[in-house]
């Protein structure tokens, strides 16, 4: 399908052909949910750790005699019901990662791109290049394009001026095409692709 290309100044820069196999799918929420869950699980550090009754430093001596007191038959002060005792069933350090087939990950990316295209939230820019690393100038260009919340995907190598200028603008993310992912696509309002990014995506999913 043909799609209009713009410059950063908002002018027309011709057309580009978009593949139906990447941008023309009917988005499936179940696949997108699986990929996002997998991504977020990988990001979790899993370093949370509570002290159990084996970890707290308290005496292990029996608190009082077994019989004759009229009270419950307690043994150790490390038990969870006592102040200063260990936590019952607390979190332990572990990995939250789980496997997801490569084909499902690739399919999830195509469905995320198709979802953005179907919602008319895709913009194609001919080249993501800034003449100088000035945030004010780039913010003005984004305002002209109506971009307040967007993910920019450039080619394999990002223009350093563009990357630095966009760094301080809130709700704007810039990634090279090899860093494109489902979570970042869906968490931002608009998806802005360079022509180099589209070529790389079509080569990747050929």
Automatic annotation (TrEMBL):
<dbReference type="InterPro" id="IPR023574">
    <property type="entry name" value="Ribosomal_uL4_dom_sf"/>
</dbReference>
<comment type="similarity">
    <text>Belongs to the universal ribosomal protein uL4 family.</text>
</comment>
<comment type="subunit">
    <text>Part of the 50S ribosomal subunit.</text>
</comment>
<dbReference type="InterPro" id="IPR013005">
    <property type="entry name" value="Ribosomal_uL4-like"/>
</dbReference>
<keyword id="KW-0699">rRNA-binding</keyword>
<protein>
    <recommendedName>
        <fullName>Large ribosomal subunit protein uL4</fullName>
    </recommendedName>
</protein>
<dbReference type="GO" id="GO:0006412">
    <property type="term" value="P:translation"/>
</dbReference>
<comment type="function">
    <text>Forms part of the polypeptide exit tunnel.</text>
</comment>
<dbReference type="GO" id="GO:1990904">
    <property type="term" value="C:ribonucleoprotein complex"/>
</dbReference>
<dbReference type="GO" id="GO:0003735">
    <property type="term" value="F:structural constituent of ribosome"/>
</dbReference>
<keyword id="KW-0689">Ribosomal protein</keyword>
<keyword id="KW-0694">RNA-binding</keyword>
<dbReference type="InterPro" id="IPR002136">
    <property type="entry name" value="Ribosomal_uL4"/>
</dbReference>
<keyword id="KW-0687">Ribonucleoprotein</keyword>
<comment type="function">
    <text>One of the primary rRNA binding proteins, this protein initially binds near the 5'-end of the 23S rRNA. It is important during the early stages of 50S assembly. It makes multiple contacts with different domains of the 23S rRNA in the assembled 50S subunit and ribosome.</text>
</comment>
<dbReference type="GO" id="GO:0019843">
    <property type="term" value="F:rRNA binding"/>
</dbReference>
<dbReference type="Pfam" id="PF00573">
    <property type="entry name" value="Ribosomal_L4"/>
</dbReference>
<feature type="region of interest" description="Disordered">
    <location>
        <begin position="65"/>
        <end position="97"/>
    </location>
</feature>
<dbReference type="GO" id="GO:0005840">
    <property type="term" value="C:ribosome"/>
</dbReference>
<feature type="compositionally biased region" description="Basic residues">
    <location>
        <begin position="65"/>
        <end position="77"/>
    </location>
</feature>
């Amino acid at each position: 399908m043909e799609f209009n290309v713009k410059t950063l100044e908002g002018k027309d820069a011709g057309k580009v052909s978009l593949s139906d196999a990447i941008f023309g799918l009917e988005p499936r929420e179940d696949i997108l949910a699986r990929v996002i869950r997998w991504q977020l699980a990988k990001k979790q550090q899993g370093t949370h750790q509570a002290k159990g009754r084996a970890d707290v430093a308290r005496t292990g001596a029996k608190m009082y005699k077994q019989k004759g007191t009229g009270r419950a038959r307690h043994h150790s002060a490390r038990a969870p019901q006592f102040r200063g005792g260990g936590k019952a069933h607390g979190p332990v350090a572990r990995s939250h990662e789980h496997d997801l087939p490569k084909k499902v990950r690739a399919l999830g990316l195509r469905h995320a791109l198709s979802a953005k295209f179907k919602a008319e939230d895709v913009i194609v820019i001919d080249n993501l290049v800034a003449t100088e690393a000035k945030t004010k100038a780039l913010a003005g260009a984004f305002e002209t394009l109506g971009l307040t919340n967007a993910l920019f995907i450039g080619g394999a190598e990002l223009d350093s001026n563009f990357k630095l200028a966009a760094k301080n603008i809130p709700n704007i993310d810039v990634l090279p095409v090899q860093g494109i992912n489902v979570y970042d696509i869906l968490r931002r309002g608009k998806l802005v692709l360079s022509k180099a990014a589209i070529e790389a995506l079509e080569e990747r999913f050929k």
